Amino acid sequence: MAFVIEQRLEDAQHEYDREADVLYVSFGPPRPCVTLAVEDWLAIQITPSAEQLCGLTIIGFKRIFSRIRPDLIENLPERVAKLRTARLLVQYSDGTDTLTFRFEEEQPAYYERFGDNIYLERSLVGREIIGFKITRYTEQGQQAMGMLLSSMIEALFAAPGTAPSPADALTRAFLEHLDIPRLLSLAA
Amino acid sequence: MSLVTIRTADGLDAVLDEDHWRTHITNRHPQMLPYQDLVIETLKNPEGVYRGRRDRNTRIYTRSYSKILVGERLIEKTNLRIFVREENGFVATAYFAVAELRGLGERIWPS
């Protein structure tokens, strides 16, 4: 079952459908894809064979993000431009039963425990989150992914003044990359 | 501009704009192109209608389908989701979901 999926996103494009208030971000030319519904407002498209990320769709983009992250709306073109420099790497090792997910180039880093079998990978310089890994993936991988995503979404919608948690940092790291990573591993 | 108005199961007049269907929905989700009839069927006869969790003015119409062709791959079981603006019935987008991480929110039909 061991696998390595690598995808560069230099062809990332976005289209904001003002009439419908829907944001589409695509990687590569439009092609038939299936959808993983993360939330009712956030959907990720992957190829039916689950080898490539096609894009993501945010329904109600301005109505939702104007309340919680207006900067994301204001800086959208710059964020998509940054996305074009990103590299996603999803790797599963049979020997260690570990899924590793990285959305920055490999660099000196350390791991910080996030959950029972979830570890955030932080760069030594700057302590930025550059990925994560999930151990005991065969038995607990899906549950761990659910926990990661739920924590991030809860952090995104937390009431003002809520004490920051590791989930906040993870959410910020993903938003820096426009939320796209990780779903490849759900589909794997 | 060609508009198709569909009276939904929960009494909304949903508006499917042909231009919007072609230039946005199927342009970005090309797998939907052959399935406009399923969109209309789902609006008329959904299995459920839900209110958006984060955007309360969005209604989500769902219906399960089997053996849907996506590109060259036959998807055995999938769920069609259609997103409609409540204030004007505008059909915003639609897709086939093969997996969902979190269930839909408040079901408003059947109540």
Describe it:
The complex is a heterodimer of chains A (188) and B (111). Chain A has 188 residues and is α+β, with helices and mostly antiparallel strands. Chain A has one domain. Helices cover 30% and strands 36% of the residues of chain A. In chain A, the strands form 2 sheets. A 6-stranded antiparallel β-sheet of chain A has the order 1-7-8-11-10-9, covered by helices on one side. In chain A, strands 2-3-6-5-4 form a 5-stranded antiparallel β-sheet. The longest helix of chain A is centred in the C-terminal third of the chain and has 20 residues, at 137-156. Chain A is globular, with a radius of gyration of 16 Å. Mean pLDDT of chain A is 79; it is low at 177-188. By secondary structure, chain B is of the alpha+beta class. Chain B has one domain. In chain B, the strands form 2 sheets. In chain B, strands 6-5-4-3-7 form a 5-stranded antiparallel β-sheet. Chain B has helices spanning 18-28, 36-44, and strands at residues 3-7, 13-17, 48-51, 58-70, 73-85, 91-100, 107-109. The model of chain B has no long low-confidence stretch (mean pLDDT 94). Chain B is globular and about 35 Å long. In chain B, strand 3 (48-51) and strand 4 (58-70) form a beta hairpin. Helix content of chain B is 18%, strand content 48%. The chains are: A alpha+beta (188), B alpha+beta (111). The interface between A and B is large, with 39 and 38 residues.
